[in-house]
Amino acid sequence: MRTALVIGTGLMGTSAALALNGRGVDVYLQDHDETVARTAEALGAGTCAAPPEPVDLVVVAVPPAHVATTLAEAIGGGRGRGYLDVASVKGGPRRDLDALGCDLSGYIGTHPMAGRERSGPLAATADLFEGRPWVLTPTAATATDVLNLALELVALCRAVPVVMDADAHDRAVALVSHTPQLVSSMVAARLEHAEDSAVRLCGQGILDVTRVAGSDPGMWMDILAANPGPVADVLADLSSDLAETVTALRALQSADDDKRRGGAAGIEDILRRGNAGRAKVPGKHGAAPKPYEIVSVLIGDQPGELARLFADAGAAGVNIEDVRIEHSAGQQAGLVNLLVEPRSAPVLTAALRERGWALRQ
């Protein structure tokens, strides 16, 4: 790939353009908002000049509702050898293109499984896709050279290609992405009118559950409007679990011993099912999740403390597999949870204590 045209210079388009431009591809930028395109250009994503000839690959990074018309215009204008989109929904745009009479041999639907809570070109980074799955949804009509161009794009962005059927993809993202966004927003919505005394008790659990609730509502409206059926199906199943859980919790209030036992069994069942589902989520580097030990360290909220902690862990010869930080409410301190392999936990604990760190059991 020598040349590419990126249409849509928001977070995804600009991140792809930055990755391509940084690896020697001549990237041309286009957006319906010229100011946004100029911002991407200023960031080093490419040039807003028109391509002098058809490019090798046209990357369409616009909201799902506009994917088909944008692609149809690009294909009709002969703007590239190959065409792909990066929208989070795949079945609908492909059917829309087919209905518009487009030749689908030069097109492949794709979806990089990466993103941020922020949007726009200023949130873009060249490494946004590194190590992340990038779904490709070729059909029998997809030309081999177009599939190869898509694979080259994925490689240049240092992502991991995953081939799926378009509708299977839409059902999958409804489960692992779109429904969690809605559930996170629903939980966060309970906080809007909560008493300040309750909100002050927020800890790491509520922060984890509501993290994605800070995402742009306009962007998510576009996504959900393009995939309503599969999301509704998942929410319907979730609603059944929720109703059963409510019933079980009410039973725990009963004076009847049998009802209380039944309620406890119902709650335990959902918690155990949750354990089983969580265990299926891929761990580090996509491998099966490992059981890690947690070494909890109290640190001050001041420059250099984290760097010193990691340096001391490195000096002890211990690899930190993951890290989570909990901030103390109203205090200039925090709790850093270092996740390490079980055999490394005693070594790290002893080394950090020797270096004067305050550990929490």
UniProtKB/TrEMBL annotation:
Keyword annotations: Amino-acid biosynthesis, Aromatic amino acid biosynthesis, NAD, Oxidoreductase, Tyrosine biosynthesis
Domain ACT: from-to ranges: 294-361
Pfam families recorded: PDH_C, PDH_N
Catalytic reaction equation(s): prephenate + NAD(+) = 3-(4-hydroxyphenyl)pyruvate + CO2 + NADH
GO function terms (MF aspect): NAD+ binding; prephenate dehydrogenase (NAD+) activity; prephenate dehydrogenase (NADP+) activity
One GO process term, biological-process aspect: tyrosine biosynthetic process
Residue ranges of domain Prephenate/arogenate dehydrogenase in the record: 2-289
InterPro entries per the UniProt record, alphabetical: 6-PGluconate_DH-like_C_sf, ACT_dom, NAD(P)-bd_dom_sf, PDH_C, PDH_N, Preph/Arog_dehydrog, Prephen_DH
Coiled coil: none
Involved pathway(s): Amino-acid biosynthesis; L-tyrosine biosynthesis; (4-hydroxyphenyl)pyruvate from prephenate (NAD(+) route): step 1/1
Enzyme kind, highest EC tier: oxidoreductase
Domain of life: Bacteria
EC number(s) given by UniProt: 1.3.1.12
Protein family (similarity comment): Belongs to the prephenate/arogenate dehydrogenase family.
Name this polypeptide is given: Prephenate dehydrogenase
Native source species: Actinacidiphila yanglinensis
